[in-house]
Amino acid sequence: MEVLKLFKKLIESKSVTPDDGGLLDFIASYLDDFEAIRVDSNGVKNLFLYKEFGEGDHFCFAGHVDVVPAGDGWSSDPFVLTQKDGYLYGRGTQDMKSGVAAFTQACKEVKNFKGTLSILLTSDEEGEATDGTIKVLEYLKEHNLLPHYAVVAEPTSEDVFGDAIKVGRRGSINGYLTIKGKQGHAAYPEKSLNPVHIFAPKLACMAGVNLDNGDEYFAPSKFVVTDIRSGMEVTNVTPNELKMMFNVRNNTQTDQESINKFVAKHLEGIEYELKLTQGSYPFMTQTDTKVVQNLDSAIFNVTGVKTNYSTAGGTSDARFMPSFGIKVVEFGVKNDTIHSVDERTTAKEVTQLFEVFKNLIQNWK
Question: What is the mean pLDDT of residues 291-319?
Fold first, then answer.
């Protein structure tokens, strides 16, 4: 099967989170010379395939077969790969069945590798991700099968295919702030304690503020206010409390402790409650690491493009790997229509991605 035929098969298997659309069984049978391990959890299907070629590094391709719901307004059936105006349309064409097709076909065609080659797939990346990749990694650690290096084939390219590798990702910290007041009649403000009035002058000092200066690879961590609400939607009662939610996409210089100190500094003397939760943590793979250098060379060999190193964007399952000692990067097709109506890529990008991954395997050193 050629990579584009495999790509078509993946797109046309409806696999909205957490349904894998039967793809994990299909890929396991397609790569029948690889050892297959299923690590299913709470209805989420996960697959790990590996093959030992000899002594050397354990290198893993990782990704997800699940996609977000298609939504309305498509110009063609989102679960039929449709070629039109030089593009291939379908849900998951960029995020990330192009990547899965490319590395699956590359592993199918490999003859030799200096070590162990593996694939990690989940059907729960677009959902809560609590029963997906993390469960497989825990299993692999328990059975001494963790890879040394990994490439997650998320879409990373920006203007042209091959121009960006994700060498790290920011974390994500959610904040829930409550400013305490005392409810009262709007006509007698002196008898109440209005939390809106208390907080208003503080907001300008906090909203949109950079919590650090960033660095060569990371943008500054910014305090982004996402919601403010207070009162009972009446004009004659002052509110008892004000609630605000915020998010900080944090780099390696900012953590929960520094956010606590930032809030405490600006709300000194004010009664408040603050709750912080963190769904993902920042990580950085050094650019002189073997996986970065080998992938960089493979991209240039195939495309002639000199790639840039980036940490921009949201999050992915790559976030789970550094805590297990895995050096991980992300690379894939252009990222400009993911999760949107009429998500699309090109046959050339899918083919070149396959060629990059095949070159990476063949020239691993």
Answer: 95
